[in-house]
Amino acid sequence: MMDFFRALADPNNLFLRQTLLVGLFSSVTFGIIGTYVISRRISYLAGAVSHSVLGGIGAVIWLKTVFALEWLDPLYGALLAALLSAFIIARFGSGTMKKREEVMIGATWAIGMAVGIIFMDMTPGYFDITSYLFGDILLVSGRDLKLIIALDTVIILFFYRFYHIITAICFDEEFARLRGLKVDLFYQLLLGLTAVSVVLMIRVVGIVMVIAMLTLPAATAALYARTLSGMMGLAILFSSIAIVGGLSISYSANLSCGPIIIVCAGVIYFFLAALKRNKNLY
Amino acid sequence: MSLEIPVISIKDLNFSYSDNPVLENVNLKIDRGELASIVGPNGGGKTTLLKLILGLLKPGQGTIEVFGTTPVKARRKIGYMPQHAQLDPQFPISVLEVVLTGRIDQCGKGLNGSFPRTATAQAKAALAEVGMADFTQKHFNRLSGGQRQRVLIARALCSEPELLLLDEPTSNIDPRSEENLYETLARLNQKMTILLVSHDLGFVSHFVKSVICVNHEVVIHPTSRINGTIIKEIYGGDFDLIRHDHRCGPSGHSHYDPFSGDHEPLNLKGKS
């Protein structure tokens, strides 16, 4: 593990330092949006949004190849698919259909992935979708880093300005509505923000595992936090520990870093949850 | 009769969840200063009636007016306490923060999203009102069931409502806390109209001025006229009427026969 930190100190190793920065800035998103996802109990919704992103990526790759649209970036397709699936679930999984929300989530999850694979089948040539599925923090570009910093800024400003309103809605939505809050508007805005976060974070840990980083650090923080803001701060900390730990282990052991980061986050969660368990219970 | 607009006025109301009628032909008028309890069996439509008054549900037929306007427009004047069982017990929030959500409408409008000082003062005053002033910074999920009820009542009081709606305020609290709670409500009733849902008719009948019986249909009884026949009508089954004929009241020691007189305290235990 020490060779990772030695390499980090090497002035020629700009690349590794950028990777570390990506990890730390991602932790801000994981911590804050993750806290929202956990306290609103929408982790499966976030999972559906992330998997449906493959549909958007597949469509863009197909359009790009078949119609030679060089300017198209898979990121656009991913964003569109994420926002669309979040909108579909929010629109059709609420109200009288609320009891069927999990069906809507499962359907969006599966259809999104299926559409992505169909498009890739239709596209001439071979594509390796592993980097989308499992992500690779080492491939994150300078542009991605800037996007992640911009996202962090938007998230921090939004949650700072509307902190009390978000707390009220997360704690008791019905009561917040009765006090005259525009609950549906905030729900859609927060869902949109969650969808954008999922898309950018896919670059770091991939479609399959983004849900883990949106839930594990925040769930670990929930073991100790007394307020929503405290939970966000702690979640950022736990996420940073998992990412720095995961990066250094994968660097030393020469293993892909996404899965190691997830395992680190998971081990931290299960270890602390076991410590925290009430010993007077059977 | 006074010309004052009634606090709640319901005319010919029908409500059903898809094909399942819940409330039929409801007419109800609640005047200012009333302290009434909604009673009735499970599935009789108690909470539905409350949600209609709050404007969370739309009536199928008929009209509901609250303070002479629509329920949605009247919401600012209503304080509401839901059943706390529906809240996430793990949610990280302090007692003061919970009560402050009652004043979320005053949360900063500009770039600064914080509460004005007056809101915090109101929240603390509301906590003092329900005897929870010492718990301001406590974690909400560390409180007992009865303490949580009190905090949620403080949240409803925080916005200085003219009408207070309480859904099962006495569920899962012990008899002594229940008695304290009713004393608090009687005191608050001097300032506001109160409507509460309870399934414990016997206990509630000491405190409230009238009982609104909800079992698909709605009937109002002044508490002085509750007797076995009426109770059978409401609950529609066989019930044990447990005599509370050993009572110490302000007027000394007294004995009642539940089946003869007016104004006998009753406890209900459903058999069916």
Detailed description of the structure:
The complex is a heterodimer of chains A (282) and B (272). Chain A contains 13 helices and no strands. Chain A is an all-alpha fold and 282 residues long. The longest helix of chain A has 26 residues, at 14-39. Chain A is globular, with a radius of gyration of 19 Å. Chain B is α/β, with parallel strands linked by helices. Chain B has one domain (8-226): P-loop containing nucleotide triphosphate hydrolases (Rossmann fold). Chain B is 26% helix and 27% strand. Chain B has helices at 46-53, 71-74, 95-100, 117-129, 145-158, 175-188, 201-204, 228-235, and strands at residues 8-17, 20-30, 35-39, 61-66, 78-81, 163-167, 193-197, 210-215, 217-222, 239-243, 247-249, 252-254, 266-270. Chain B has a six-stranded mixed sheet with strand order 5-6-7-3-8-9, with helices on both faces. Chain B is globular. The interface between A and B is medium-sized, with 28 and 31 residues.
A few lines on this structure:
Chain A is mostly helical and 282 residues long. Helices cover 78% and strands 0% of the residues of chain A. Chain B has 272 residues and is α/β, with parallel strands linked by helices.
**Low-confidence runs of at least 5 consecutive residues of chain B:** 237-272
Class per helix and strand makeup of chain A: mainly alpha
DSSP helix fraction of chain A: over 70%
Largest sheet of chain B: 6 strands, mixed
Share in β-strands of chain B = 25-35%
* CATH fold-type name of chain B: Rossmann fold
Quaternary form: heterodimer
CATH architecture title of chain A: Orthogonal Bundle
The CATH first-level class of chain B comes to Alpha Beta
Give the largest interface: A-B, 28 and 31 residues
Low-confidence stretches of chain A: none
Helix content of chain B: 25-40%
What class do helices, strands and sheet pairing of chain B give?
alpha/beta
Counted by DSSP, the helix tally of chain B is: 8
Distance between the termini of chain A: 39 Å
* Arithmetic mean pLDDT of chain A: 88
